[in-house]
TrEMBL record:
GO molecular function, one term: oxidoreductase activity
Coiled-coil features, chain-numbered ranges: none
Keywords: NADP, Oxidoreductase
Example of a GO cellular component annotation carried by this entry: cytosol
Protein name: Aryl-alcohol dehydrogenase-like predicted oxidoreductase
Lineage per the UniProt record: Bacteria, Bacillati, Actinomycetota, Actinomycetes, Propionibacteriales
Record bears the keyword Lyase: no
Length: 336
């Protein structure tokens, strides 16, 4: 497993990070979730990503229990704040000082740790002044409850504003967590160049596009039993937009490229994300322990320039590139 620096900080993270969105506390049983975490550790993964909103806080508890007994100093644990948790009261979401302070304490309790390595604003909060949010993050850092601060799905302008205010307050904004894959490249035009100039890394979620880039969903064929596309707890809804026939046909055109490299299509997808040097790590999930070993094999894979060009040709116009979608997909009012 290779490691990369997160932004301009001295923190190194495993370039493949294990995340438990959708899976822990909902899609898979706790025993299986624990086996997946242990498989990640055995594969050399040291970075683990979660959020308080996942399974309404349960995912954090599952991850904390699975990591219990590990040497804390050898891990990098990430979590997030913004989306609703608890009974959906008026202050149970957003980036207000109240919600951030209460949320970090809850996350630490559930994760069974005194601090998280990276605490992330899960979205931009249009209803809270940026000054309030960043001051709260500064105080969280000074209290030793988080070592570094990041954001998730912020636009280039938002990252620029947050980075400047963090600097004024004496701490560094080191990362942004966007969706990024061969099929979803909305960060490339604005977010990545801005981040490179500021010393901010991307912590990318869904590098395999909800499993679509594994090639297991065939155009015109029934979806495999037990796949995310059959998950009524949320997975099927998230993957729906990727299941259109032109997209599935384009994905199948990637198979010869993966074969030429001697890797699976899932490994090709993860390796493709890691070719971008602004990427600090790619987050993978798993519903079975054996999936971990397959994805980890993407670490260190180099895709030649000519094959990167063939990937672009194979996918054609099914790739989504509009940089405006980052802001469009962020709620304009608090979702609680």
């Amino acid at each position: 497993m290779k490691h990369r620096y997160l932004g301009n900080s001295g923190l190194k993270v495993s370039e493949i990070c294990y995340g438990n969105w959708i899976t822990h506390g909902s899609q898979v049983e706790n025993e299986t979730a624990t086996k997946c975490v242990h498989a990640a550790l055995e594969a050399g993964i040291t970075s683990f990503d979660t959020a308080d909103v996942y399974a309404n806080t349960v995912a954090e508890s599952v991850l904390g229990a699975a990591l219990a007994g590990q040497r804390r100093e050898s891990l990098e644990i990430f979590t997030k704040v913004y989306w609703p948790t608890g009974p959906m009261g008026p202050n149970d979401c957003g980036l207000s000082r109240k919600h951030i302070m209460e949320s970090i304490n809850g996350s630490l309790r559930r994760l069974g740790t005194d601090y998280v390595d990276l605490y992330q604003a899960h979205r931009w909060d249009y209803e809270t002044p940026l000054e309030e949010t960043m001051q709260a993050f500064a105080d969280v850092v000074r209290a030793g409850k988080a070592l570094y601060i990041g954001v998730s799905e912020w636009s280039a302008d938002q990252i620029r504003a947050g980075h400047a205010m963090a600097k004024e307050l004496g701490f560094q904004l080191v990362s942004n967590q966007p969706q990024y894959s061969m099929l979803w490249r909305v960060i490339e035009e604005q977010v990545v160049p801005t981040s490179e100039g500021l010393g901010v890394s991307q912590v990318c979620w869904s590098p395999v596009a909800q499993g679509v880039l594994t090639g297991k969903y065939l155009p015109g064929q029934p979806v495999p039993d037990g796949s995310r596309a059959t998950d009524a707890n949320g997975g099927a809804n998230f993957i729906k937009r990727l299941m259109e026939t032109p997209t599935l046909e384009a994905v199948q055109r990637l198979r010869p490229i993966a074969d030429e490299l001697g890797i699976t299509m899932a490994q090709l997808a993860v390796a493709w994300v890691l070719q971008n040097q602004n990427v600090g790590c790619a987050i993978i999930g798993a519903s079975r322990p054996e999936q971990i070993a397959e994805n980890v094999a993407a670490s260190g894979v180099e895709i030649p320039t000519e094959l990167m060009a063939r990937i672009d040709e194979a996918l054609g116009d099914v790739v989504v590139r509009d940089p405006g979608l980052t802001e469009q997909n962020t709620p304009k009012s608090r979702p609680c």
